[in-house]
Design a protein that fits this description.
The complex is a heterodimer of chains A (681) and B (301). Chain A has 681 residues and is of the alpha+beta class. Chain A is built from 23 helices and 16 strands. Among the domains of chain A are: 141 residues, no CATH class; 194 residues, no CATH class. Chain A has a five-stranded antiparallel beta sheet. A four-stranded antiparallel beta sheet of chain A has the order 1-16-5-11. The longest helix of chain A has 34 residues. Chain B is α/β, with parallel strands linked by helices. The longest helix of chain B is centred in the middle third of the chain and has 16 residues. The model of chain B has no long low-confidence stretch (mean pLDDT 87). Classes of the chains: A alpha+beta (681), B alpha/beta (301). Chains A and B meet through helix 3, helix 6 and helix 10 of A and strand 4 and helix 2 of B.
Chain lengths: 681, 301
């Protein structure tokens, strides 16, 4: 695992999984509901401008039911409640403090908030959605599969019979002919990564570009050529046109994506690559990550900051007598690890070695790994003890219980060594490993001393599976955390100690993991493409939704702009939270006019306050715009694939749900735009 | 006889507006029409008179500014009514990358017709419109007349009760025009209702039972064709085996004068150019090798 991968992981946080589902639903109801409320108000106002009272046709075309009115009223009442709470400053969910300007704002995963304000906001959104979706759902019931299929097939045939599509796809393969040029400046160890990253990005750009073009021009061409007249004069719901187009283009581009993926895999497998790079990356590791905590004699030790550019990694000082430890804690034990192949579970790691002294060239840093179960708790050494961590007493155990178990362990080790010299250093697959396993399972303790670790290189040790069998036994109970709160005790902990004086060992949570399994690379590559497929659906959906109202060129530009803004999440976050150095646009204009630098304190005058309020208003607008923009980075799995990490099926399921959730409001918008459009005017 | 009314408009009005809602043109002004089951109804008028606008309003392609339109008793905006309608637009707006079979299959699917019925009807209609030999060619390669024929086939794929034809003879040669008119009459004979609009007055006169004449969005005239074209102030006599001579003229003048009338003209009636053309083509089919023979006096000169 490269250092970059760890940083990416920390930047974005863990990919969203099932645990985030409820939080996502709540956030979706709030965001989509807000737009639904706005749409509902606009729709109700629009309905006043058409002669629904006199015309049966118009009443049918722009229906306003009691249900819609009731939902609109309920929604507005709830929004009124939210506004009141906002003014009173009550019922808000806890907000983590914003990092200072210049620091990256970490995206927090969505969680379900039980406070009154977010709940009321969600309920208001649900009412608005129920109101605006009533005609949509009613017409959706009239949708017929045969018609959708016909329209989808039509879109498919149309795109296929335009030869330009095939020319573009053929051009998409063109860069693969010149790998020698763009791979020439790549380090051998990175060859495989670069190949996959290039391949994935190129494939994505091409597929998205072609998808966007054909989707943006589909409906407008139909309207321009008047071919739509012979379609909408059949018993075809207007939304069936949108849905048919969407499914047709998605189907077509899915076929193209599958073809391109197959070609890419063939290309990757036939390209000559550095064997070490291939070994590191041509796999799909299934990692099991723990919670990282730093500990030492001092309770408040939280790792050392060495002042490197990125603040993600914390460091532990190295020395045989150092009490500083990085501890990865596991609260759940995967059942597969209890009966792992060869009775050994691999642990992989990548650490950053920060040298305080020059040291010796090409000599690794010695690191000790101590793996213990909850039955063998460890405690930091006292001041009068050396740096070695001690066996602690179990909850409810008489004082000195830990010491007794330590002695029993030492005695068993001595007996093992007496039976067979060197047995204590046995490796998996050797005859002595069974005894090591037995010892680890009996005492819940295993230690590997002085493992050589190179800077940013993947290292690996194997630990006995017996530890996991032991860890799964019993109830670990609770303990007091560093913050003083009670928390469950981990079932398994891995203590990492740096043995080399003058060196600091840097690590972040994703830097060490238990290797649960290795999946085939090709399968992982295909899974990575599901992220591209989700993006493809978003681009096509956006382009079609825009094309229900705009011309082809404008639809393409509009869809491209919305989609590409999704890559500027960090910048938009800064705008939305007013964290830019120099403030928002109004403060900037004000300072420019007064020829002040952005770092000049802005002052407390009433005009300055007015400017700041205007900037807060602007930030609110940006936050609403943010809700329209897809979180395209969530669908990126390139770094997982290129670094040889398995793309979890859970992530993909959430990805697909997020994609559907994002496209749904656009579908409703497309429904209304299409329905209100006079195709013959 | 509520069932007998197929199309009804009540003060149907359409005003075109610009993006800002400013009035551009009143395309149709308070149109009141009733079309009954089994009749061929023609909308007549110069360009911009509101014929096509009326049709588009009936089909839901445009939304009325005021008034109402009903088809089979349902508001025009109701999609389900289209199940019983066949529509042939002025230009045959079909997908040019499809061939005839694919075109009919596509439109058949839009009517949710099952595969077997779709296949059968497509084959019948392709035969009917005379495109059996060209059914595998894509529409892009078709002539305008051929496209009009396949356009008609798509309009009939659902065996509609109401057929709406916008300039059905547009782009057709005289043979095609005659074929189209015959087909329209056949549709009426099968109990279908036909609503058509055309600038070609002779077409309308030949096939329509009733017509509405529109001008500048206003309904100017409405009624049965036979009544509307009848010139009650004149009487026409036709006779066989007579030659125009001064004696005959004098006798006829005397008889007409005796009955209080006045002879306007006397002469041989002329056929229409269309009839002449059709007769010649028919003869050519009957007698292959038929050539134009110049009159004897023309040869001499």
């Amino acid at each position: 695992m490269s250092g970059l991968f760890g940083i990416l992981q920390l930047d974005r946080g863990e990919p969203l999984g099932y645990a985030n589902f409820l939080g996502l639903v709540q956030a979706w109801c709030q965001d989509a509901g807000g737009f639904a409320a706005l749409g509902l108000i606009i729709y109700l106002l629009y309905s006043r401008s058409v002669p629904t009272a006199q015309s049966h046709s118009e009443k049918l075309r722009v229906p306003v039911s009691t249900w819609m009115l009731a939902m609109a009223v309920l929604s507005l009442v709830c929004y009124g409640g939210v506004l009141a709470l906002l003014i009173m400053g009550k019922g808000a969910p806890p907000q983590p403090p914003l990092p200072p300007p210049g620091m990256v704002l970490k995206t927090e995963p969505p969680v379900w908030h039980r406070q009154l304000r977010p709940m009321l906001l969600m309920v208001a959104g649900i009412f608005a959605l129920m109101g605006i979706c009533e005609p949509f759902v009613r017409d959706l019931l009239k949708v017929r599969g045969r018609r959708i299929w016909a329209l989808a097939r039509l879109s498919f045939k149309e795109a296929v019979r335009y030869r330009i599509l095939w020319v573009l796809l053929a051009l998409g393969l063109f860069p693969f002919l010149f790998t020698g040029i763009w791979m020439s400046s790549t380090r051998p160890v990175d060859e495989f990564r670069v190949l996959i990253v290039f391949d994935s990005i190129w494939l994505m750009v091409w597929v998205l570009l072609i998808g966007a073009i054909i989707a943006a021009f589909g409906l407008p061409t139909d309207i321009k050529n008047l071919t739509i007249h012979t379609v909408v004069t059949k018993p075809v719901e207007r939304f069936e046109l949108v849905l048919g187009r969407f499914l047709g283009y998605v189907g077509l581009m899915t076929v193209a994506l599958v073809g391109m993926t197959a070609i890419s895999l063939l290309f990757i497998s036939t390209t000559t690559i550095d064997p070490k790079a291939k070994e590191e990356t041509e796999t799909a590791r299934v990692p099991r990550r723990g919670k990282l905590e730093f500990a030492s004699r001092k309770a408040d030790f939280d790792g050392t900051n060495v002042g490197r550019e990125f603040d993600y990694r914390r460091y532990i000082p190295g020395d045989p007598t150092a009490p500083h430890r990085a501890i990865w804690q596991y609260y759940e034990i995967p059942s597969s690890m209890k009966s792992a192949a060869g009775d050994a579970v691999p642990v992989e790691f990548t650490f950053d070695v920060f040298k305080l002294t020059k040291g010796v060239e090409n000599k690794p840093v010695d690191v000790t790994f101590r793996v213990v179960t909850h039955q063998a708790p460890q405690v930091a050494p006292r001041q009068d003890q050396r740096g070695e961590w001690q066996w602690g007493d179990l909850p409810g155990e008489p004082r000195g219980g830990g010491e007794i178990r330590k002695r029993a362990y030492d005695a068993d080790v001595a007996a093992l060594v007496a039976r067979e010299t060197g047995a204590i250093n046995a490796k998996p697959g050797t005859p002595g490993w069974a005894a090591i396993n037995e010892l680890a399972q009996k005492h819940g303790y295993y230690e590997r001393r002085n493992v050589g670790v190179f800077d940013y290189a993947i290292g690996r040790i194997e630990i006995p599976a017996g530890l996991f069998r032991k860890a799964a036994e019993g109830d670990p109970g609770v303990e007091e955390g560093k913050d003083g709160n009670r928390r469950p005790r981990p079932r398994l902990s891995i203590y990492v100690k740096c043995e080399d004086g003058g060196q600091l060992l840097g690590m972040a949570e994703p830097d060490l993991y238990l290797l649960e399994a290795n999946q085939p690379f090709a399968v992982n590559f295909v899974k990575g493409m599901i992220g591209v497929w989700c993006r493809l659906c978003i681009v096509i959906g956006l382009a079609i939704a825009c094309s229900t109202y705009l011309s082809g060129v404008l639809s393409l530009l509009c869809a491209a702009m919305i989609f590409l803004l999704g890559f500027l999440t960090d910048h938009l976050n800064d705008l939305a939270t007013n964290r830019n150095v120099g403030g928002g646009p109004f403060q900037t204009i004000s300072q420019l006019m007064r020829t002040e630098t952005p770092t000049t304190p802005f002052g407390e005058s009433s005009s300055a306050k007015a400017v700041l309020i205007a900037d807060r208003g602007w930030a609110w607008v940006v936050r609403r715009i943010q809700n329209v923009i897809p979180d395209v980075e969530s669908f990126t799995w390139t770094h997982f694939v290129s670094e040889g990490f398995n793309v979890n099926a859970e992530y993909l399921v959430i990805n697909v749900l997020m994609m559907v959730g994002y496209l749904f409001p656009w579908a409703v918008l497309a429904y209304y735009l299409m329905k209100s459009r006079e195709v013959a005017s | 006889m509520a069932e007998a009314v197929v199309v009804e408009t009540r003060s149907l009005t359409k005003v075109y507006r610009d993006f800002w809602g400013r009035k551009k043109k009143t395309a149709l002004n308070a149109l009141d029409l009733t079309i009954h089951k089994g009749e061929i109804f023609g909308l007549l008028g110069p360009n911009g008179s509101g014929k096509t606008t009326t049709i588009k309003l009936l089909l839901g392609l445009l939304f009325p500014t005021a008034g109402d339109a009903f088809v089979f008793g349902e508001p025009a905006a109701k999609v389900e009514k289209n199940e019983r309608i066949g529509y042939l637009p002025e230009e045959s707006y079909l997908y040019r990358f499809l061939n005839a079979e694919e075109t009919l299959d596509f439109y058949g699917r839009l009517f949710d017709i099952d595969a077997e019925t779709r296949r059968r009807r497509s084959a019948e209609l392709i035969e009917t419109v005379g495109l059996a030999a060209d059914k595998k060619r894509i529409l892009k390669e078709y002539s305008k007349g051929m496209r009009q024929r396949i356009g008609l086939a798509q309009a009939l794929i659902n065996d509609p009760e109401l057929v709406i034809l916008d300039e059905p003879t547009s782009g057709l040669d005289p043979l095609g025009t005659a074929w189209m008119k015959k087909l329209i009459l056949d549709l009426r004979n099968k109990g279908k209702t036909v609503l058509m609009c055309s600038h070609r007055l002779d077409d309308v006169q030949d096939v329509c039972d009733r017509i509405a004449i529109l001008y500048n969005g206003d309904l100017q005239e409405l009624g049965a064709v036979s009544k509307l074209v009848e010139d009650a102030a004149r009487l026409e006599l036709r006779a066989k085996k007579l030659k125009e001579t001064p004696e005959l003229r004098a006798d006829l003048e005397a008889v007409i004068k005796k009955h209080g009338g006045e002879l306007e003209s006397i002469g041989h009636p002329t056929t229409t150019l269309e009839e002449l053309f059709l007769r010649i083509v028919e003869e050519s089919k009957q007698r292959p090798g038929r050539r134009y023979q110049a009159p004897v006096d023309a040869k001499a000169s």
